[in-house]
Amino acid sequence: MSQLHTLFWLRYRIFRNSLTTRGEMARKILNTVLLLIPVLLSVGIGIGLFLLLLFVEQARTPIMNGGMTTVLATLLFLMLISQSTGASSHFDPSKFALFPIKFGKLYVLNLMSAVGEFSMLMVLPSMAGMLLGLGFAYGHIFGGVIVFLLALLWVTSLFICTGMLFAWLLSGRKRSREILFALLIGLMTVGGQLLPRFFITPQGRGLMRWLLPYRDIITTVIDWTPIGVWSFFFRHLVEGETATAYIRLVLVCGIWISLALAIGLRLFTRLATSPRASSTASRVPRGKRAAATNTFLSFHLPFVPGQIAVVIAKELRYFARNPATYLTIISSLIFPLLFFRTGRSGTNSNLWISGWIVYVFAMNLQYFAGLFAYDAAGFRLYLLVPIRWTRLLLGKNAAIWLLVTTQITLVLLSAELLDHNLTFEKVYIAGCSMLSAMAMYSVVGNYVSIYFPYRINFGVPARRRENWSGISLLVQFALLFGVMGLLLLPIGAAYWFRAPKMLYFLFAVLVVASWTVYFLFLETQAKLLAARRFDIAETLTRRTEKV
Amino acid sequence: MVNPSEVAQFTSPASSVTPAPIALRLRHLTRRFGDFVAVNNLNLEVRRGSFLGFLGPNGAGKSTTIKMVTGLLAPSQGQIEILDRDLEAEPIAVKRLIGVVPEDLNLFDRLTGAEYLTFVGRMHELERHVIAERTAELLHVMELEEKPKALIIEYSHGMRKKISLAAALIHNPQVLFLDEPFEGVDAVAARVIKNLLERMRERGVTIFLTSHILEIVERLCTDIAIINHGRLIVSGPLDELRAQAGTNLEDYFVNLVGGERPLADTLSWIG
Ligand SMILES: Nc1ncnc2c1ncn2[C@@H]1O[C@H](COP(=O)(O)OP(=O)(O)O)[C@@H](O)[C@H]1O
Ligand SMILES: [Mg+2]
Hints:
The complex is a heterodimer. Chain A has helices at residues 3-18, 22-55, 57-85, 103-114, 118-137, 141-170, 175-198, 202-211, 215-223, 229-238, 242-273, 306-321, 323-339, 347-363, 365-369, 379-384, 389-419, 424-451, 470-496, 500-541, and strands spanning 455-456, 465-466. Chain A has 2 domains: 21-273, no CATH class; 301-541, no CATH class. Chain A has 20 helices and 2 strands. In chain A, a hairpin with an 8-residue loop joins β1 and β2. Chain A starts with a helix and ends in a 6-residue tail after the last helix. By secondary structure, chain B is α/β, with parallel strands linked by helices. Chain B has a domain at 19-97 and 176-186 and 211-271: P-loop containing nucleotide triphosphate hydrolases (Rossmann fold, 3-Layer(aba) Sandwich), CATH 3.40.50.300. Chain B has 10 helices and 10 strands. In chain B, the strands form 2 sheets. Chain B has a 6-stranded mixed β-sheet with strand order 6-7-8-3-9-10, with helices on both faces. In chain B, α4 crosses α5 and α4 runs parallel beside α6 (157-169). The longest helix of chain B is centred in the C-terminal third of the chain and has 16 residues, at 187-202. The chains are: A mainly alpha, B alpha/beta. Chains A and B meet through α12, α16 and α20 of A and α3, α4 and α5 of B. Bound molecules: adenosine-5'-diphosphate and magnesium ion. Magnesium ion binds at residues 62-63, 103, 179-180 of chain B. Residues 62-63, 103, 179-180 of chain B line the site of magnesium ion (MG).
């Protein structure tokens, strides 16, 4: 068998072997169906764009002259973001280091399989729609096809290149690199949000005015980038300058694609031989060891049993050491800070407050719904120590409550610092929304964590969610909108009956009710957890094969 | 090493007036994975204070047994009693009495060694100063104190075994379960662990150790049980087994679990 053939056979075999049980099969099918919805949506958008360009003449020029560049930039940006958190199915070079196979060969295979990646499937249809659409619309069918093929090659090489970059940042289990990675992604997310808003501020308009004389230069520069060259190509093609169009296209694409491919290949070969673990800790001389035993995990809380306190401490330690936490905090802060700053009061601003509280919760959903996701083999320890499951659940939930409370406090404090308009009413609504959302998220999150446990690998190259279940995704969506609806009830009622005082009363009722529900369910959930403990341990520690 | 009268009590408890206390009692213990029976109707009694070597070839069902006994895996059938407490009925009480080093360790990778020991100690509700003292001493004995800031994920295989053993000891367990504690451990670390286990036995701790290597069991244990294909083949004091086997215990063991295959006409392409 040729090596190429063998590699694809290996992929197929591993996939086949992973479908050992009927439940497994059903889960995979369900996941595929659930993933199919966004993919179909994206294909729909692509076809829509294609038809739009083909039949609506007015749409062509704006899309060709700037719209396309913006859309492409946004799409690539989204692809990179999703790539940083999602799965990637590239062949892991380190697994093949012992075999006599050329890394270049593996690399080409990775390029080919990248086309099937979820984030690529989200991007490609729109690109195809725009590029083929413009080509067909202007009667340059051949040009459209060529442009699309080159764009395809560019996007795949960029995808693999950044994928390798992320993998490299996360390899070696170096904490500093992991944090760097989180900050990088955080900055990208924040930058993506801030930039468009910046241009509508007075300073932003000033900058634009200042840049106006240089517009031609900027356009020229953009024309030399792989997101701008498409527009250049079509502009010149339409004007009949076929040679200029093609030469520029091939030149620009050639440069950028080879750059991305070369960097990607370099990182790829480097990853293949990089050491997996490298110790960042330094040795200390003997005799200085007493201090080491006085750890953060010995922290005590008044009135809280030691077992619960130490579960909280351990969870907080894990949050602090998890790059994902920083990502969560950045993203949960940035949106409310940009939009929470409303000077108005009354129903409208109350709605905003509750809305942003819900938003912060949505950002933290993965912690509520994946209570054991980061524990991995550590989960077995809970089976071996004399702790009651109620306490474990309480401790784990309480740690998330602390995390969320910190984030919301930060949002409120910064809003106050910026606008000085935090009224008692706003704080009250924010507090009540937070408390009831906390209880409701915990109730549902605990059920999801127990019924659909999954593992998130912590700081390893592909930060994939193993055993990820489609059903839990559905439940989480329902939770998001359910909580939102419940929080709208008091605000809506107060508005409807024109009784502002009612707001205070209804929110208090909501808080009491949701916490009653939480404590009513806690014991049941503990029993359920006890019954499902072996299954959860199995799911969290099962070795999943990946090549 | 072993008092002969005690041995006699173990082999025939019915004959003694006051039966020796039993640390572990397994009755009809069975575990099926689908149609496959990994552990088949296991009946075993381990006397208190003894050091049992649970021996068997790869895949015999040793780990499956130890997982069921320590509450890491649900038995398909059968009862487990540790120091006269039923595991199913009183899980919390049993967990206070036992220490476990499972096959695929149970570590929180992103804690430091000291943090992990503190976590386990507090889970067992020990006093704060007791935890601090024992953590320091355990880290010292296991020679793990040189990198206090290192996370467990940065530990080598042997270090992971040692930190897992340290965690199993912090609450002074009465019965200790070890699944292949010497596997992948270097000679120095193995010596440390061996000395520790011998000292623990002298202080009356019951130890249940699995291994597929006869030599280890022969050197450390007072009692032996051999399992193959999920069935218990032999169990009893090591001295008695030795007497029965004649001089070469290894031949006896290999014969019991399936014998040798001829090597003559295999791997013919090598050389
Ligand atoms: N989760 C499982 N699913 C299916 N088979 C298993 C599982 N765990 C163990 N087995 C099988 O049970 C048998 C005994 O395994 P184990 O107890 O780990 O052996 P060992 O004596 O080497 O520790 C093996 O044949 C193994 O393949
Ligand atoms: Mg084993």
